[in-house]
Write a structure and sequence with these properties.
alpha/beta; Rossmann fold; seven-stranded mixed β-sheet; about 240 residues; globular; 10 helices
Length: about 240
C-alpha cells in the first residue's frame, strides 16, 4: 500500500481533490489537523501544507512505514477510533480527516460522535467513503469494509450525531462507468481480487489521474449526483 498510494492514479488524484477542498476552508495559519486512520502516511505531507498535522493509526507496521517515509516529523499515535483515542481533553483540532476510514469502523455512529470532543469551535470534519452498497465486491471484502454508503444514509448519520453538513457530494464521477463496470464484472465472474488495484502503465496512470483530479474544479461550486465515492464536510451544530 505504501508503494501504491504514492503512484496510483486514484490515490494521487484524490489527494489533489482533497487539497483543493481543504484550501477552500481557509484554515487559520496555526491550524491543527488530525488524520484518523492515516495508514502508511500517504496523506500527511499534503495535509501539512495547511497546518500542524497529527494522526492516529491502529496498525504498528503502518505507523512504522509512515514514520520512515515522512522522516519522523509527524505526530503519529497508536489508537483506535472510537474506543481508544490517544488525546487529552485539552487537545483540539481545527480539521479532522477520515479518508476512506469510516467504512472500516463497526460502529460508525460512535466514531462520528467521538469527533465532537476533539473539534475546536468552528472546526470541521472532512470525510470520504465508498458509495453504493450495490457496488459491493471482492475489493470491499479484501479491504475489510463493513459497508458502503449512500449520500442520504451518510447525511442521516451526521444528523444523528449532532453534526450539520456543509456539503455532501459524490465524486469520482467522470470515471464512474469504467469503475462501476469493473466492480460489477468482478462480482459476476467471482473474482477474488479486484480489477484496477495495481498501478497501470505510466500513460494510462497519468491519464486517469488527470481525469479524476479534474473534478476538483467543480466540487467547489456544485455537487455531483453520482460517483464511486462520497465526500462530506461538516461541523458541530
Amino acid at each position: 500500500m505504501a508503494d501504491t498510494e504514492s503512484r496510483h492514479w486514484w490515490f494521487t488524484g484524490r489527494r489533489r481533490i482533497l487539497a483543493s477542498v481543504i484550501e477552500s476552508f481557509r484554515l487559520p495559519d496555526n491550524a491543527r489537523i488530525l488524520e484518523i486512520g492515516s495508514g502508511t502516511g500517504g496523506n500527511l505531507e499534503m495535509l501539512s501544507r495547511f497546518g500542524k498535522v497529527s494522526s492516529v493509526e491502529m496498525d504498528e507496521t503502518a505507523r512504522a512505514i509512515a514514520a520512515k517515509k515522512t522522516g519522523g516529523v509527524f505526530d503519529i499515535r497508536d489508537g483506535i477510533c472510537p474506543t481508544n483515542m490517544p488525546f487529552s481533553p485539552g487537545e483540539k483540532f481545527d480539521l479532522i480527516c477520515l479518508f476512506d476510514v469510516l467504512e472500516h469502523i463497526e460502529d460508525d455512529v460512535a466514531a462520528l460522535s467521538c469527533l465532537k470532543g476533539l473539534l475546536n469551535d468552528g472546526g470541521r470534519v472532512l470525510v470520504t467513503v465508498p458509495a453504493y452498497q450495490w457496488l459491493w465486491s471482492a475489493h470491499d471484502q479484501f479491504l475489510h469494509h463493513k459497508r458502503r454508503y449512500s449520500s442520504q444514509k451518510l447525511t442521516e448519520k451526521l444528523g444523528e450525531t449532532g453534526f450539520s453538513a456543509d456539503k455532501v457530494s459524490h465524486f469520482n464521477t467522470f470515471l464512474f462507468p469504467l469503475a462501476a463496470g469493473a466492480r460489477l464484472l468482478d462480482r459476476l465472474l467471482g473474482r477474488t481480487s479486484a480489477t484496477g488495484t495495481s498501478v497501470p502503465g505510466a500513460f494510462v496512470n497519468s491519464t486517469l489521474r488527470a481525469i479524476f483530479s479534474f473534478e476538483r474544479f467543480f466540487l467547489g461550486w456544485m455537487s455531483f449526483p453520482f460517483g464511486v465515492s462520497i465526500i462530506a464536510y461538516f461541523h458541530s451544530k
